[in-house]
Amino acid sequence: MSEKDIQAGELALRLLDGEELLAARRLLVEDPDFAAAVAQWESRFAPWYDEFPERALPADLWSRIEARLARGGDALVISLKRQLRAWRAAAAIGGGAAIAAALALLLVPTTVTPPPVAPPVESPVRGPLLVASVDAGTTAVVGLTYLSDSGELLIVPARLAVPDRRARQLWLIPAGQAPVSLGLVEGEAPQRRVLATAVRQQIALGATVAISDEPTGGSPTGLPTGEVLGTGTLQQG
User: Of 17, 65, 92, 157, which is most buried by a Cβ count within 10 Å?
Assistant: First the structure.
């Protein structure tokens, strides 16, 4: 299993933070293979949450891992930081399913070697990354990532349940303005689309995004006509 596959699993389990999370979310938008790997990890983990009972973690687990980090070399530090992150996330979620999912990453045989030293390269300036999670309960959970410098929107659906002759439509709701369509959720595979300039100009930090129940093909009026199933807020990625 490659380092990128493991990174995809960590993103699916919400184990990343800081610069690592930002890098993974950009990769999610820019690399279709990585987006597919994230979706595969998410579908692999999903059934476990109902199958495994909750278990308490050993009270001294963090101190033991951190002690090993202090003693190890660079390669061990990289490996054990991944383990520490996975176990802490599992504890935060609180269930045996999360622990089992973390184990799926920890037990993958990998050889981690320190990366070669390369001359510094000046990175291009990128626009802000905005993310949101729209939770519609049992009918859908949709993760959104908007990359402002390219105007691309990445849609990662999960638990999508759509009745016959109905559709799920995404909306941007700028403060004090009418909803603007972001298009339909087309199945459970990750989707990527470039937004129109007029839509991009209305996307801002803190704006509301929503998902509604609409007829097949989407709203005939350009505004939500069915029940609003869930909402979320665009946050800095």
Answer: 157
User: Could you count the other beta carbons within 10 Å of the beta carbon of residue 99?
Assistant: 22
Q: Of 3, 22, 42, 19, whose CA–CA distance to 145 is shortest?
A: 22
Q: Please, what are the averages of pLDDT over each run of 10 residues along the chain (237 residues)?
A: 82 78 80 84 68 66 71 54 54 50 52 58 59 85 90 88 93 94 91 94 94 96 95 89
**8 A C-beta contact, residue 192 and residue 32:** yes
Do strands 208-215 and 152-158 pair parallel, antiparallel, or not at all (unpaired)? unpaired
The closest alpha carbon to 25, from 37, 13, 11, belongs to 11
Considering the entire predicted model, what is its pTM? 0.55
Residues 6+ apart with CB under 8 A from 18: none
